[in-house]
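We were asked to recover a plausible sequence for a given structure. The inputs and outputs are reproduced exactly as logged, with field labels preserved.

PROBLEM: sequence recovery
POSITIONS: 614
GIVEN STRUCTURE:
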């Protein structure tokens, strides 16, 4: 076993003590070092004040212990986690005491004794907290939250201004902490998808404040000791993705057979694809439940439409943010051309002089949400024409948003590959055809093409560590993707727990995704139960939440016996499923709705109820 050279040991150790301790540290393994640190700390605490004073009389003055700052984060896709980790690293590098906790690992009773709290939280959907912060949020907003006159705090919110309630949960918690008597040390930070433009200066201000408020955790010569478990940065990231080769790009939806003429079929309504990518040579690894980040190029037809609508030339050279590129390249690879944002709409309103658009942007105007949900960029540019310069357009558009797709495979079965399932977005609106930028890019990929990818871990969405646990998986439409990986993983590892899948779509004949695979999994005993909900194959629509209620007794029994529950798919579906679960828990616990809500919250805190909704 090789070890790094031990650092010189400071007073108050004698020469022999220093030599013996250095020899032990050089020979011990990690577990021995961790055990010894606890043992020695216990001995130190056992000393009487008199004995301790005598033992340290000749030593340098000991710094006064300072309660560490606490950084709590709530993250749905990993961005808030990374921002929190960055702040924690900055505080540690400055020798300041700090601890970092995910919101569902934070003991809420401790908030009454906190002195300095940094809260970094993303907003999910329209003002909701991420799943790992639901319990934390409910506590702070509830009656049990204590008064906090001793607390100093700062909140950084991460959001998406294409939603009307931008950074909604961060605003709510920032106001609530102040209402409870806490003192705000920094203004609320509200970061859009270009996170660093807000998060970086917010962290710098937080660090500056912490230096004033906190004493160093240890003398400078001790603050630079290398931690036992340094964090290794991933090789491939969002900014430096890996070029993955396309192995297969297959449509897995069909056309409805009409039956009255020779091979008469309806037009293709849904185009859902199964994409297989090679990760060979990348060193990338993932677990079922993780997501694959993809950097796409915007379709050329969309770029051309924007140029026509603005009257600009694609070959115009634009200098922006330290880069000099033709406008067409900015629009193809570096700017968001489908999703809207409030700052963009404000620029359009100013340039076009459109009073109706300016009115929509007024605080509290509920019609803004409708605009954001029904218009793409091209619709706004056509509806409110304005004079643009190439540089102004690039500055007004938000940076391109990277798309995340749930990985639909297990490495234990597919090796150095990653599979994803995606719906190719295409629809008509405002008199023209519309398409999804990323899904159209992926759909057009031929075999042997390559696509830039990286792994986005999702630590809360994992198969149980205890393989004897049963799992219930609820995944309509493309939400079924991660559960393909779950079933593969559980089969390959010999898990003894049962697997129950509830899948839903509109039509059995055309949208039963991975039908053959599920049938084979049932036959092999890899899948133990499959319940289906095809909403439009009968006069009365049936959804997965309806199937849940039908089998409520069994669902409740599985949960009572320790099963893990997973939900993946659209945000609206996730809310409907949650309501069904509340009904089930209330029905079978004697009708106590409050206890049913507490029950689901407890399952979430235990990691037995996980959601990946978008």
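RECOVERED SEQUENCE:
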């Amino acid at each position: 076993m090789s070890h790094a050279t031990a650092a010189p040991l400071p007073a108050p150790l004698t020469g022999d003590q220093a030599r013996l301790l250095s020899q032990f540290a050089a020979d011990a393994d990690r577990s021995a070092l961790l055990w010894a640190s606890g043992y020695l700390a216990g001995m130190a605490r056992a000393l009487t004040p008199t004995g301790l004073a005598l033992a340290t009389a000749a030593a340098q003055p000991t710094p006064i212990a300072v309660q560490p700052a606490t950084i709590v984060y709530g993250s749905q896709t990993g961005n808030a986690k990374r921002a929190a980790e960055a702040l924690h690293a900055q505080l540690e590098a400055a020798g300041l005491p700090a601890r970092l906790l995910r919101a569902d690992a934070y003991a809420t009773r401790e908030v009454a004794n906190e002195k300095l709290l940094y809260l970094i939280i993303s907003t999910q959907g329209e003002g909701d907290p991420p799943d790992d912060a639901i319990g934390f949020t409910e506590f702070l907003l509830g009656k049990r939250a204590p008064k906090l006159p001793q607390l100093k705090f700062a909140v950084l919110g991460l959001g998406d201004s294409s939603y009307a309630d931008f950074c909604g949960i961060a605003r709510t918690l920032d106001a609530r902490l102040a209402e409870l008597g806490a003192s705000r040390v920094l203004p609320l930070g509200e970061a859009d998808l270009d996170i660093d433009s807000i998060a970086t200066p917010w962290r710098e201000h937080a660090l500056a404040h912490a230096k004033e408020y906190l004493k160093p955790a240890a003398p400078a010569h001790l603050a630079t000791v290398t931690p036992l478990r340094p964090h290794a940065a991933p090789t491939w990231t969002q900014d430096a993705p890996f070029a993955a080769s396309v192995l297969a790009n297959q449509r897995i939806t069909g056309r409805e057979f009409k039956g009255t003429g020779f091979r008469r079929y309806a037009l293709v309504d849904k185009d859902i694809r199964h994409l297989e990518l090679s990760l060979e040579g990348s060193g990338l690894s993932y677990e079922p439940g993780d997501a694959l980040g993809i950097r796409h190029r915007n379709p050329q037809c969309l770029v051309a439409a924007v140029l026509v609508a603005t009257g600009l030339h694609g070959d115009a050279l634009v200098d922006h943010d330290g880069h000099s590129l033709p406008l067409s390249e900015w629009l193809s690879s570096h700017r968001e051309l489908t999703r809207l944002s409030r700052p963009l709409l404000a620029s359009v309103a100013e340039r076009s002089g459109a009073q109706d658009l300016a009115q929509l942007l007024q605080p509290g105007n509920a019609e803004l949400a409708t605009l954001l949900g029904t218009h793409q960029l091209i619709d706004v540019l056509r509806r409110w024409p304005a004079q643009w310069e190439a540089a102004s357009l690039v500055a007004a558009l938000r940076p391109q948003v990277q798309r995340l797709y749930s990985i639909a495979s297990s490495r234990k079965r597919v090796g150095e590959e990653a599979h994803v399932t995606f719906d190719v977005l295409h629809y008509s609106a405002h008199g023209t055809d519309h398409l999804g930028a990323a899904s159209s890019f992926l759909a057009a990929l031929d075999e042997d093409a390559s696509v830039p990818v990286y792994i986005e871990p999702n630590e809360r969405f994992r198969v149980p560590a205890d393989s004897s646990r049963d799992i219930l998986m609820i995944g309509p439409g493309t939400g079924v993707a991660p559960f393909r990986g779950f079933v593969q993983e559980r089969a390959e590892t010999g898990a003894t727990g049962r697997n129950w899948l509830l899948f839903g779509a509109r039509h059995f004949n055309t949208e039963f995704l991975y039908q053959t695979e599920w049938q084979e999994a049932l036959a092999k005993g890899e899948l133990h139960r499959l319940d289906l909900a095809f909403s439009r194959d009968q006069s009365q629509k049936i959804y997965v939440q309806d199937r849940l209620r039908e089998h409520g007794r069994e669902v409740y029994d599985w949960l009572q016996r320790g099963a893990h529950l997973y939900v993946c798919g659209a945000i609206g579906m996730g809310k409907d499923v949650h309501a069904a679960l509340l009904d089930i828990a209330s029905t079978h616990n004697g009708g106590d709705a409050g206890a049913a809500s507490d029950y689901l919250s407890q399952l979430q805190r235990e990691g037995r109820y996980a959601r990946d909704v978008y």
